Amino acid sequence: MAKSLSDLHCSVARSLDVIGERWTMLVLRDAFNGLTKFEEFAESLPIARNILAARLKTLVDHGVLEREQYQERPPRYAYHLTKKGADLYPVLIALFNWGDEYLAGSDGPPVLLAHHECDHSAARPESVVVCTGCGEHLAPRDVRRTYRRPRARTR
Amino acid sequence: MAKSLSDLHCSVARSLDVIGERWTMLVLRDAFNGLTKFEEFAESLPIARNILAARLKTLVDHGVLEREQYQERPPRYAYHLTKKGADLYPVLIALFNWGDEYLAGSDGPPVLLAHHECDHSAARPESVVVCTGCGEHLAPRDVRRTYRRPRARTR
C-alpha cells in the first residue's frame, strides 16, 4: 500500500508521478499558452505562491520545463517548455476536448481552439488515437497489450 | 485561493476535477484493460480499499463508469465504462506514450501496445493532435485560442 506511482511497472503511473499532482497540468496549460514568468503563472492560477513554486520546481527537476534567469538584481526566472514538456500537448488537448464535450454546461466551452490555417469553421484541434503504422483511428478493442515482465499484479 | 478546479472557467481544470485525483487514471486504465469487479481493481492497484471505493464512486457519480449489480447475496457490483468514460481513451494513451518515451528506463516500456490489424512491427497506438477539419497534425503554434468571456484572469 501507499507505494509511489513511480514504482509501478506502468508508463501511465510513471507519467502521473511527474504531472499528476494537483495544479501541475494547469501550470503546463499556461506554459503552452505562452506564459513564462513566475508572476504570470501566479496571476493566472488561484494557488498559493509556495505551491506554485513547488510545482515549477518539480517540472524543472524532471526536465519538463527549463528555467532561465532573465534578470540579476533581484534574480528573476522564466520557465520554458522543453521538448519533453512540449510532447505533453496531446495530454493537454485530450483533457481540453473531454471537458468541452462533457463538462461545459449551458454556456458552452470557455475557450475555443482553432487551427490557424484551416478554413472549416467547425474544425477544432482534437487528440485522437491513431496507429503509427497504418494511420487508422483506434478504439480500445483494436489494441492488444503485451506485458514485458511476468505480471502477477499490474502494480 | 483554494478554489475548486470545477469553479475555474477552463475545460482542462474541469476535466481534472473529475479524473485528476490520485489513482483515478489507474482505475480507468484497468477499466480499459477489461477489469470490471471491485476485487479485480483491488488486486490490481496498491491502494486501500476505502480509497478505491471512493474513486469508483466519484467516477460513477460523474457518469464515467456505470455500476451494475451482478450478484444479490452478498451484493456484488461490476463497473463498466460509459461512452463518456470510453472517450477518455486519448488521455490514457497520451499518458502511456509519454511515459514510454521519457520514463521507461533501461529495460524499455513495461507494456507494448499494438494495433491488432496492422502488420507494421514497429507501429503503435499514439495520441496525436489533429485538426478535425483538414486532418493535419497540429503543434501548439498552429492553434489559436478565443476566450468566450472577458478574461481578467485565466482562473
Describe it:
Two copies of one chain form a homodimer. The first copy, chain A, starts with 10 loop residues before the first helix and ends in an 8-residue tail after the last strand. A two-stranded antiparallel ribbon of chain A has the order 1-2. Chain A contains six helices and five strands. Chain A has 155 residues and is an alpha+beta fold. The first copy, chain A, has a single domain, classed as Arc Repressor Mutant, subunit A, CATH 1.10.10. At the A-B interface, helix 1, helix 2, helix 6, strand 3 and strand 4 of A face helix 1, helix 2, helix 6, strand 3 and strand 4 of B. Strand 4 (125-131) of chain A pairs antiparallel with strand 4 of chain B.
Name the biggest interface: A-B, 93 and 92 residues
Instruction: State the total count of DSSP E strands of chain A.
Output: 5
Which stretches of chain A are poorly predicted, pLDDT < 50 over at least 5 residues?
none
CATH homology-level superfamily of chain A: Winged helix-like DNA-binding domain superfamily/Winged helix DNA-binding domain
Oligomer: homodimer
CATH class of chain A: Mainly Alpha
CATH architecture of chain A: Orthogonal Bundle
CATH topology of chain A: Arc Repressor Mutant, subunit A
Secondary-structure content class of chain A: alpha+beta
Number of helices of chain A: 6
Shape of chain A from CA axes? Answer: globular
Strand order of the largest sheet of chain A: 1-2
Counting structural domains of chain A, the number is 1
Order of helices and strands of chain A: HHHHEEHHEEE
